[in-house]
Design a protein that fits this description.
Layout lengths: L5 E6 L1 H18 L6 E6 L3 H8 L7 E8 L12 E4 L9 E9 L3 H12 L4 E9 L12 E5 L5 E2 L15 E4 L1 H4 L2
Parallel strand pairs: 2-3, 2-5, 5-6, 6-7
Antiparallel strand pairs: 1-9, 3-4, 8-9
Helix pairs in contact: 1-2
The structure holds 1-O-pyrophosphono-5-O-phosphono-alpha-D-ribofuranose and magnesium ion.
Cofactor: Mg(2+)
Pathway: Purine metabolism; GMP biosynthesis via salvage pathway; GMP from guanine: step 1/1; Purine metabolism; IMP biosynthesis via salvage pathway; IMP from hypoxanthine: step 1/1
Protein name: Hypoxanthine phosphoribosyltransferase
Length: 180
């Protein structure tokens, strides 16, 4: 039913699961002798955080922050709103930010400033998707799953107007769904 709104599937469930395994193995090595705090950025990063963490073999703590800047639009409002803050103090902690996508870069550049202000010891970013063509502020992730083209993508956590997060794959949304 949902598939009728999808122009093209970019990444299958299998490709995403394989990538979660790969990135989990890298993080396991990197944090083997540390006690990092992984922070999933809701709502979009929920499925990726859950799949990725299953493959991290280290003493990792998890917390979530809910931030939003897109609302029902396909371009960032530029205003990053904290809907729910962390439960954990991050002072002196090694932070792993887990994101679904970096597009304009505004969400993460806001969060990095905030986490530095809160005196995190180190901050690394792992993102499933990176859309370099969308960048409005300079920002690079430490670990990137896949690059995506200049198109609005949905699925596997990513929404348009709160829909399509439950698709098991990542696909390009048909333009007629959001431009009328
Ligand atoms: O690099 P940017 O242009 O800031 O875009 C990336 C952010 O936008 C989306 O979140 P959104 O604000 O839509 O909230 P959601 O995760 O609840 O959908 C996505 O999940 C990222 O957090
Ligand atoms: Mg969204």
């Amino acid at each position: 039913m949902l598939e009728k709104d999808i122009q093209e599937i970019l990444l299958t469930d299998e490709q995403i699961q394989e990538k979660a395994k790969e990135l989990g193995a890298v993080l396991s090595q990197e944090y083997a002798d540390k006690f990092p705090l992984a922070i999933g950025i809701l709502k979009g990063a929920m499925p990726f955080m859950s799949d990725l963490m299953k493959h991290v073999d280290a003493y990792v703590e998890m917390d979530y922050m809910d931030v939003s800047s897109y609302g029902n639009a396909t371009v960032s409002s530029g205003e990053v709103k904290i809907v729910k803050d962390l439960n954990t103090s991050i002072e002196g902690r090694d932070i792993i930010i887990v994101e679904d996508i970096i597009d304009s870069g505004k969400t993460l550049s806001y969060l990095i400033d905030l986490f530095k202000y809160r005196k995190a010891k180190s901050i690394k970013i792992v993102t499933l998707l990176d859309k370099p063509s969308g960048r409005k502020v300079p920002l690079e992730a430490d670990y990137v799953g896949f690059l995506v083209p200049d198109a609005f993508v949905v699925g596997y956590g990513l929404d348009y107007a709160e829909r399509y997060r439950n698709l098991p794959y990542v696909g390009v949304l048909k333009k007629e769904v959001y431009s009328f």
